[in-house]
Design brief:
The protein has three helices and eleven strands. It has one domain. A hairpin with a 2-residue loop joins strand 10 and strand 11. By secondary structure, the protein is α+β, with helices and mostly antiparallel strands. Strands 1, 2, 3, 4, 5, 6, 7, 8, 9, 10 and 11 form an eleven-stranded antiparallel β-sheet that branches.
């Protein structure tokens, strides 16, 4: 019993001591390679989590989107990046849904070669994964009437028995 409490305590200390802001800035530097920049964000370190509020996303120095909330949850075995209330600029609403209520990226040591994606927005619901080995993303959208309001997005999807599928390589 003492050993399990000691192990839990050590694990908790490791999670608290993880440099969460450094993880975020590393993610931001990867985005900058693709000309995506996030600015005006506010950080709140909650010991076990990192919350980032009110970020504005710029693409090639033009407003692309605004993100109300980002939460980074590094739990060592299962890590999550949650984005909430994403609104796209009117310039890009023909290409992207107007609002994304939430999108969650989950990385698990139990499935180390993929990142799962789960999203909800005014387009409906989507599930997918990003294969880290093949650098391939696959997202399955439920065929809903809301999704049909975005013809440029629907043109990039193909029909399979699971639903409408978007696939791309990076």
């Amino acid at each position: 019993m003492k050993r399990s409490l000691y192990a839990f305590y050590i694990l908790l200390i490791i999670i608290v001591m993880i440099p969460k802001e450094k993880l975020y800035f590393t993610f931001e530097s990867i985005l900058s390679q693709h000309h995506l920049f996030i600015n005006n964000e506010e950080f709140t370190n909650r010991f076990l989590l990192l919350d980032i509020d009110n970020g504005n996303v710029l693409l090639d120095n033009q407003e692309f989107a605004s993100i109300e909330s980002v939460r980074i949850s590094p739990w060592l075995f299962i890590n999550q990046l949650s984005l909430s209330n994403i609104s796209f600029s009117p310039l890009y609403r023909n290409f992207f849904p107007g609002e994304i209520e939430s999108i969650v990226f989950t990385y698990s040591l139990f499935h180390p070669l993929s990142v799962s994606i789960d999203g909800e927005g005014d387009f409906g619901h989507c599930d997918g994964n990003f294969d880290l080995l093949d650098q391939k993303v696959r997202v399955i959208f439920e065929p809903t009437s809301q999704l049909r309001r975005y013809p440029l997005l629907v043109n990039k999807l193909h029909q399979e028995k699971e639903g409408l599928v978007y696939e791309s390589n990076f």
